Amino acid sequence: MLTFDDRAKDWDKNPTRIERAIAVAKAIRAAVPLSPEMTAFEYGCGTGLLSFALRPYLGPITLADVSTRMLDVLREKIAAAGVANMTPLRLDLASDRLPAERFDIIYTLMTLHHIPDTAKILGSFHALLNPGGYLCIADLDQEDGSFHSSDSTFDGHNGFARHDLRHQLLAAGFGEAKFSTCFEMVKDRRTYPLFLAVAHKG
């Protein structure tokens, strides 16, 4: 099965991924009062599609991923665009120390369901946010396992039930999360809704 490193070079050639990033960015902008004074952190950034869509509305953005080749593609895109406010970072929050910097907004797209320990990663996100900061998670609604059925190496979650994730966010220290449907993916003739969860750190 192809890894994310293997898929990095051609990642942006899939128009659905671009459409998805634009739709999620639009949903985040509608839910959070973004400003160029806000520092941002994207975890599981891949080639940076979501951050590029949000870049005009934010200040400095740190883009973190565990895939070296995804980050290589991202660096090429940043250089080609002459962007000054985006910084790639190789980081695995499952095993690495937290960065020293704190942020005003953290967002993820189709990342959380790949992380086995949801409670730990939500706790890390809470620690990385400034007081008053926002966490925005775009991911799969709970599904029957068919989304990753062709990937025998997948060991994450088959999406999330919104009420369960809401309780996990509360347990991590966040305030009440607001959920909305932000996109629908079609894969193998099946439709998979994506939610956007927005939680606030008091």
Shape: globular
Low-confidence stretches: none
Mean pLDDT score, rounded? 95
Gyration radius, in Å? 16 Å
SS-based class: alpha/beta
- What's the number of structural domains? 1
What proportion of the residues is helical, as a percent range? Answer: 25-40%
| CATH C-level | Alpha Beta
Which superfamily, in CATH terms, is the homologous superfamily? Answer: Vaccinia Virus protein VP39
Total number of helices: 6
The overall strand count is 7
CATH-defined topology: Rossmann fold
CATH architecture: 3-Layer(aba) Sandwich
Descriptive overview:
- With 202 residues, this protein is an alpha/beta fold.
- The protein has one domain: Rossmann fold (3-Layer(aba) Sandwich), CATH 3.40.50.150.
- Helix content is 31%, strand content 27%.
- The protein has helices at 4-7, 15-31, 49-54, 68-81, 118-128, 162-171, and strands at 40-43, 61-65, 86-90, 103-109, 129-140, 178-187, 190-200.
- It has a 7-stranded mixed β-sheet with strand order 3-2-1-4-5-7-6, with helices on both faces.
